Automatic annotation (TrEMBL):
This is GMP synthase [glutamine-hydrolyzing] subunit B. Catalyzes the synthesis of GMP from XMP. GO terms for molecular function: ATP binding; GMP synthase activity. The lineage of its organism: Archaea, Methanobacteriati, Methanobacteriota, Stenosarchaea group, Halobacteria. It comes from Halorussus gelatinilyticus. It catalyses: XMP + L-glutamine + ATP + H2O = GMP + L-glutamate + AMP + diphosphate + 2 H(+). The keyword Disulfide bond does not apply. Pathway: Purine metabolism; GMP biosynthesis; GMP from XMP (L-Gln route): step 1/1. It is an enzyme of class 6 (ligase). ATP binds at S29, G30, G31, V32, D33, S34, S35.
Length: 305
């Protein structure tokens, strides 16, 4: 555990010292890591820092509005509407790693544009310790590690939280008065809903994943999961009214974990599962089945791709 007040003072001083009079940018995803890094860096740099939120269209329900409200106090905040460009970049892409790559590339392009406009010399990143470990092991190409610094020519990279675990980041977030909704927010992957959709990402599948995830988050809140969400798997036959439908299969996943490196599937009571099933199939005509994922990590990962 860190002493949060000392940590914040130390990092604010360090960031000021590293960046000096130059400009900096940070990609703000709304997750606890980048939000905390942005708040720390904004405290150090004020409007010398441009926090950039790219609306990829792969976010959860209401997320962009929440970000806009939470970070409204940062005058330099930029919100980039890039939904159409991301969907174009993902058209026909089915391989998981290619998907991550396409998202990462598009993200870099969006970000690069703002970095050039603001003449930023420094990049602030919300990288935390487990990100570095997983990237070193190449378990998965996390798009928030690497990527940006390799492509955009920055004078320096600032990673104030590179040695922290997730629960420590949450403590720092709370000490920075980041709203509880951010400090307690479930981790959400950089590539967003795209890694919860098997196969090609389409607007239709995104809509299903977004609405179903909203239901799951609401219904499973009392279980206090590390992450709970819905994924869109494939299609299967079902019956709605008098008709057979070939609808989506939605998987519900709810796990507990300390840091995301390992995880246990949560035991959820039958009634709750049935309520989730009925809300999801009820609100989406094109969903024919809801299944619950009982697999721990390992052997599964938390996300589906
Ligand atoms: P997995 O699926 O590898 O996920 O068990 C472990 C934790 O990492 C999150 N995750 C990501 N976060 N970029 C991120 O910022 C990514 O590409 C990414 N992939 C997975 C996942 O949500 C979980 O908390």
């Amino acid at each position: 555990m860190v002493n949060t007040d000392e940590f914040i003072d130390e990092k604010v001083a360090e960031i000021r010292n590293d960046v000096g009079d130059a400009n900096a940018v940070i990609a703000l995803s709304g997750g606890v890591d980048s939000s905390t890094a942005a708040a720390l860096a904004y405290e150090a740099l004020g409007d010398q820092l441009t926090p950039v939120y790219v609306d990829t269209g792969l976010m959860r329900k209401g997320e962009t509005d929440e970000i806009r409200e939470t970070f409204d106090y940062m005058d330099s905040l930029r919100i980039v509407d890039a939904k159409d460009r991301f969907l174009d970049a993902l058209a026909d892409v089915t391989d998981p790693e290619e998907k991550r790559h396409a998202i990462g590339e598009q993200f870099i392009r969006e970000f690069e544009t703002v970095a050039e406009e603001t003449q930023a010399d420094y990049l602030v990143q919300g990288t935390i310790y487990p990100d570095r470990i997983e990237s070193e092991g190449t378990i998965k190409s996390h798009h928030n590690v690497g990527g940006l610094p390799d492509v955009v020519d920055f004078e320096g990279i600032v990673e104030p939280m590179r040695d922290l675990y997730k629960d420590e980041v949450r403590e720092v977030a709370r000490a920075l008065d980041l709203e509880e909704i951010i400090a307690e927010r479930m981790p959400f992957p950089g590539p967003g809903l795209a890694v919860r959709i098997l196969g090609e990402v389409t607007e239709e599948k995104l809509e299903v994943a977004r609405e179903a995830t909203h239901v799951v988050e609401e219904e499973l809140d009392e279980y206090d999961p590390w992450q709970a969400f819905a994924a869109v798997l494939g299609k299967a036959t079902g019956v709605k009214g008098d008709n057979r439908v070939h609808g989506y299969v939605v998987a519900v996943r709810s796990v507990e974990s300390r840091d995301g490196m390992t995880a246990r599937a949560q035991e959820i009571d039958w009634e709750t599962l049935q309520r989730i099933q009925s809300r999801i199939t009820g609100q989406n005509d094109n969903v024919s089945r809801v299944v619950y994922d009982v697999t721990h990590k390992p052997p599964a990962t938390i996300e589906y791709e």
